[in-house]
Write a structure and sequence with these properties.
This protein is α+β, with helices and mostly antiparallel strands. The protein has helices at about 15-30, 60-70, 120-135, 150-160, 170-175; strands at about 80-85, 90-95, 180-185, 190-195. A hairpin with a 4-residue loop joins strand 3 (about 180-185) and strand 4. The longest helix has 20 residues, at about 15-30.
Length: about 200
């Protein structure tokens, strides 16, 4: 036995979305027992009392905002010598295949973050760790892993320079922190650190 259905008019995508939204609201209202035609039963009247679902407060902390902003930047996957003047430059983490240092490193960056696998965050992290050791007197293992120790030192640097303390190395931290300079002409390192950026 075959059933035949009457043909329905064709609906545009917008009409389908509106119908789906209205249908979803109606189903939600019926499921919640909030129909205006039916009174809700009082607790104990043949239905168990159900507590309404509690909504968790929106977590809008500084660290959540910082993590969201960090995710928008590319991961540092290389290192480059950024010229300061004709003699000196600063080796610092950079974007792979570009002349930009507008990137970040964060806890757990080992080896890659995201779908792109080009470049080597290990190199960028090692450059950062060496600089932190020399300019801030820390004793980080130069292992290319942005772990708890590296994050703690970056937080200390951020606190020292009056930045948001989130433990993420990014453009603001890069510009505020002290760096050791390198001379390509003499192939030598500076004896002190400065913040020329």
């Amino acid at each position: 036995m075959a059933f035949s259905f009457p043909s329905l008019p064709k609906l545009s995508g917008r009409a389908v979305v509106v119908l789906a939204a209205v249908g979803g609201l109606a189903v939600g209202a019926v499921a919640a027992g909030a129909s205006k035609d039916q009174p809700t039963s009082a607790p104990g009247a043949n239905a168990p009392a159900v507590a309404p679902a509690e909504q968790a407060p929106a977590a809008d902390t500084a660290s959540t905002r910082a993590a969201a902003a960090a995710a928008a930047l590319p991961q540092c996957r290389s290192a480059m010598l950024v010229p300061v003047n004709r003699t000196w430059g600063i080796p610092m983490p950079s974007v792979y295949g570009a002349s930009s240092t507008y990137c970040n490193l964060m806890y757990g960056d080992d080896p890659h973050r995201g779908s792109t696998v080009f470049g080597d965050p290990d190199t960028a992290i090692r450059v950062l760790q060496r600089n932190l050791n020399f300019c801030y007197g820390t004793k980080l293992a130069v292992d290319g892993i942005y772990g708890t120790n590296t994050r703690a030192v970056v937080r200390m640097v951020q606190r020292k320079h009056g930045l948001t303390v989130d433990g993420i190395y990014g453009p603001k931290t890069r510009s505020a922190m002290n760096w050791r300079l390198y001379s390509m002409a003499t192939r030598s390192w500076s004896r002190s650190c400065s913040s020329p950026l």
